[in-house]
């Protein structure tokens, strides 16, 4: 009887921990740590297919400052949403000194000068010697879609949610918050979300950290010529999540067209900058990317299926490339219902060839499998939202895979297959 009572108390304790954990993500993490301690070792898969790629650490060897922009995806986000990935990266890169206060810029639509497009939060991270600096730009654009999603609020209100089972209610809230965003973006005739990204990029390229005020609300009016000039000289890294990948690729396509237009001018200084940009490599880390799904119904870029012509030194149009290479590292959890792999045929057909894209796919399990309903199950919400806290992903973004075999974390937990033409 004592043993039965002990087990009963243990079950009650576990249930109380689980209930309390619903109060906050911190509580949930504590509960999971308590309940899952002592379980079997990590068996989640991790497979890298493509080319070796650089991490943020590499770019410090190119210059002591790296600018990193984070673009979120579907779902409601508030300024500060990228704190976890920023701090995880800072810890791995030994950047222990942070600016006391972030700098916040309310982004305005350049088309009318008054419509608020979102927020750009800028934070500086440095090492103790101040010779390695990461300027982190966090773009928040979800206010643009909030009004449209008000149509679904009754569905997740207390007047209706009590009629659902707890798990189904969690899934409905998740889908109601995330599902409309891709549709709104694709039907955004005023290009508000894309303009928010362009404005964020303008602030990132057009101004140094010390030139930014603690708070401001205005349109960035740095001309495209100057932005292209800064892009050719800066160490720039992009991190996107889900829909953010589509937004950034569209933004890059727009840059390609700007550079093409500039290349038709006779200004000697413009030609010099364009030639410098042709030798620039950009790196994008896409978490839970949605490129294939969001390509449906959209036109192909003007120049496609011609990557060798533009990107190979022996190619017919090699001198007409825009970048030397755009390295895209696409992280996807096969159990993430909102994420997709990026096969080479997709890259060939749906990326502008002048961009010189090179995609490496990283397929890994972000979330653990559990047994439920008589089968193996993975929480799809966790599988879509926990990329920024996975030690393997943080390691790859921070350190890259150039030293894969000598990296104990990656070589132990991941498998790498190099793909060559």
How many beta-strand runs?
A: 14
How much helix, percentage-wise, in residues?
40-55%
Structure class: alpha/beta
What's the main sheet like?
12 strands, mixed
How far apart the termini lie comes to 69 Å
Mean pLDDT: 86
Query: Strand-residue fraction?
Result: 15-25%
The number of helical runs is 18
Overall geometry comes to globular
Low-confidence stretches: 1-10, 12-31, 33-38
Kindly provide the radius of gyration, computed on alpha-carbon positions and rounded to a whole number of angstroms.
23 Å
Kindly describe this structure.
The chain has 421 residues and is α/β, with parallel strands linked by helices. The N and C termini lie far apart (69 Å). It has helices at residues 2-21, 25-36, 56-59, 83-92, 143-149, 158-161, 166-178, 180-186, 192-206, 224-231, 243-263, 268-277, 291-295, 307-311, 344-350, 380-385, 391-399, 408-413, and strands spanning 46-50, 65-71, 97-98, 103-108, 116-126, 133-140, 215-218, 236-241, 281-287, 325-332, 357-364, 370-372, 375-377, 415-418. The chain is globular. 37% of the residues are buried. Strands 1, 2, 3, 4, 5, 6, 7, 8, 9, 10, 11 and 14 form a twelve-stranded mixed beta sheet that branches. Helix 9 packs across helix 10, helix 9 (192-206) crosses helix 11 (243-263) and helix 10 (224-231) packs across helix 12. 40% of the residues lie in helices and 19% in strands. The protein contains 18 helices and 14 strands.
């Amino acid at each position: 009887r004592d043993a039965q009572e002990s087990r009963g108390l243990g079950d009650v304790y576990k249930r109380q921990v689980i209930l309390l954990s619903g109060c906050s993500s911190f509580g949930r993490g504590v509960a999971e740590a308590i309940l899952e301690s002592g379980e079997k070792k990590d068996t989640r898969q991790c497979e890298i297919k493509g080319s070796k790629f650089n991490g943020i650490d590499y770019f410090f060897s190119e210059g002591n400052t790296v600018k990193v922009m984070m673009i979120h995806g579907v779902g409601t986000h508030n300024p500060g949403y990228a704190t976890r990935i920023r701090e995880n990266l800072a810890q791995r890169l030994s950047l222990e000194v942070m600016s006391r206060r972030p700098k916040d810029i309310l982004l305005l639509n350049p088309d009318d000068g008054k419509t608020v497009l979102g927020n750009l939060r800028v934070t500086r991270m440095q090492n103790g010697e101040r010779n390695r600096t990461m300027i982190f730009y966090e773009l928040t654009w979800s206010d643009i879609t909030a009004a449209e999603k008000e149509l679904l609020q009754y569905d997740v209100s207390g007047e209706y949610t009590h009629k659902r089972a707890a798990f189904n209610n969690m899934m409905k809230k998740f889908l109601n918050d995330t599902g409309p965003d891709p549709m709104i973006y694709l039907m955004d005739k005023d290009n508000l979300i894309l303009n928010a990204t362009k404005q964020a990029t303008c602030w990132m390229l057009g101004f140094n950290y010390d030139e930014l005020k603690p708070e401001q609300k205005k349109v960035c009016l740095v001309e495209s010529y100057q932005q292209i000039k800064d892009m050719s000289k800066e160490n720039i890294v992009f991190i996107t999540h889900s829909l953010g990948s589509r937004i950034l690729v569209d933004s890059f396509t727009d840059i390609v067209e700007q550079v093409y237009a500039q290349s038709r001018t006779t200004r000697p200084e413009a030609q010099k900058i364009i030639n410098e940009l042709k030798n620039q490599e950009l790196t994008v880390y896409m978490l839970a990317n949605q490129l294939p799904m969001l390509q449906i119904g959209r036109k192909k870029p003007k120049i496609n299926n011609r990557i060798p012509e533009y990107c190979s030194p022996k190619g017919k149009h090699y001198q007409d490339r825009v970048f030397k290479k755009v390295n895209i590292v696409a992280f996807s959890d096969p159990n993430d219902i909102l994420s997709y792999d990026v096969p080479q045929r997709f890259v060939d057909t749906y990326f502008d060839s002048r961009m010189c894209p090179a995609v490496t796919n990283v397929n890994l399990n972000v979330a653990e499998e559990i047994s439920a309903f008589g089968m193996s199950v993975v929480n799809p919400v966790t599988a879509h939202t926990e990329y920024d806290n996975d030690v393997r992903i943080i390691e790859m973004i921070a350190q890259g895979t150039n030293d894969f075999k000598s990296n104990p974390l990656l070589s132990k937990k991941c498998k790498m297959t190099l793909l060559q033409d």
